Amino acid sequence: MRFNGPTIAAMLVLSGLAFAGCKKNETNASAPPPATSPAAAPVTPAVAAEPLTAESVFKTRCSTCHGEGGHGDGPASVALNPKPRNYTDPDWQKSVTDEQLKKTIVGGGVAVGKSPLMVPNPDLAGKDDVLDGLVKIIRSFAPKT
Predict the structure, then answer these.
(1) Can you give the pTM of this predicted structure?
(2) 114 touches 77 (CB < 8 A)
(3) Whole-angstrom Cα distance, residue 91 to residue 17?
(4) Contacts from 47-55 at CB under 8 Å and sequence distance 24+?
(5) How far is 79 from 7, CA to CA, in rounded Å?
(6) For residue range 122-140, what is the model confidence (pLDDT) as tens digits?
(7) How far apart are CA 102 and CA 107, in angstroms?
(8) Which of 42, 54, 102, 141 is the most exposed place for a label (fewest CB within 10 A)?
(9) pLDDT per position as a tens digit, 59-118
(10) How many Å apart are CA 6 and CA 115, to the nearest integer?
């Protein structure tokens, strides 16, 4: 299989391997030496982590590929083949159960016989409130009849 630049970039973004989360090499000679005394260390207030919600997960993880409107037209979708699911498709909405959606979200596309480009979210396993909320968001894209 041959990959082009945009495909590789999309795979890095989707797999969470983008540089934003990389740590600096501790053996790097240009890194400042560690503080030698507690008085030398700056005092920073503790910052509470943002609570994990369905809305925050959809915005930061799902909409990248599926788009904010659920059309499968997120910024990363340009480099993906097959294209991400269009949540506004009424036939697809009728064909999938809530439990199938949850299994796909947690296990990724491979877990349900779909594209491996749909990455898994194992950190959401057991977080029923977040999964139920994500299903509700996905269902909200169904055309109103």
Answers:
(1) 0.68
(2) no
(3) 34
(4) 52/127, 52/130, 53/130, 53/133, 54/129, 54/130, 54/131, 54/132, 54/133, 54/134, 54/136, 54/137, 55/133, 55/137
(5) 5
(6) 999 999 999 999 999 999 9
(7) 8
(8) 42
(9) 999 999 999 999 999 999 999 999 999 999 999 999 999 999 999 999 999 999 999 999
(10) 17
Residue in 88, 64, 61 with CA at minimum distance from that of residue 77: 64
Tokens describing residue 5: 């630049």
Tell me how far CA of residue 74 lies from CA of 10, 32, 88, in angstroms: 11, 40, 14
Token readout for 116 is 């491996």
Tokens for 93, please give them.
Answer: 């909405």
Question: Which two tokens mark 51?
Answer: 């609570």
